[in-house]
Design goal:
Layout lengths: L1 H27 L1 E3 L6 H7 L4 H7 L13 E3 L16 H14 L11 E2 L2 E2 L1 H11 L8 H7 L1 E3 L7 E5 L5 E9 L2 E7 L2 E6 L6 E5 L3
Antiparallel strand pairs: 1-2, 3-4, 5-10, 6-7, 6-10, 7-8, 8-9
Helix pairs in contact: 2-3
Length: about 210
Amino acid sequence: MNKRIAGLAIAGALAISPVAATAADAAANYVTVKSGDTLSGIASAHKTTYQHLASINHISNPNRIYPGERIYLTASSTSTPTKPSAPTSSTSSGTRIVNQAAKYIGTPYVWGGASSKGMDCSGLTYATFKALGKSIPRVAADQHRASKKVSTPQKGDLVFVHDSGGHVYHVAIYVSSTKWLESERPGKGVNYYKPWSKSVYYGRFTV
């Protein structure tokens, strides 16, 4: 009898765990994508549609979500969701920029390109901000001139590589002190790369 009671207690605890996890997700108002997750699966689990999740998360291709990415949830029919507050607006903006740019990982380098079929360095940044509703110039040098200059970069800032004369010839997205997200060069398309130059300026656009 004691063993049976203990077994029932364990079973009850296991049954409660998913409910607690769902409540935690609802309280946070976002889910973090895990390997194997799909947008339609997340939508179904939270009683909404993948179209609405794609809209509020600025996801242009619902078939391309990535592990570690945050997917903010829709409201229920009787409540309005509130996104968790971020330390600063630039942090929130930077995360959105990197998440959007990461959707192009694997896109080949194509000079003059700015789409998922192929893109160059400034094509990546141009397409990323366009998808987030922000219009910026098309080429790297013009993007540098239009950006807000910063000396200490944050996630989502732009890294402008320049030559010995100070002329900008390349742009990447700053992820961390050890990682850039960029369409690097022919044969090396959109991906994360280690910083490869110290001759850089930093600029910021927010979304």
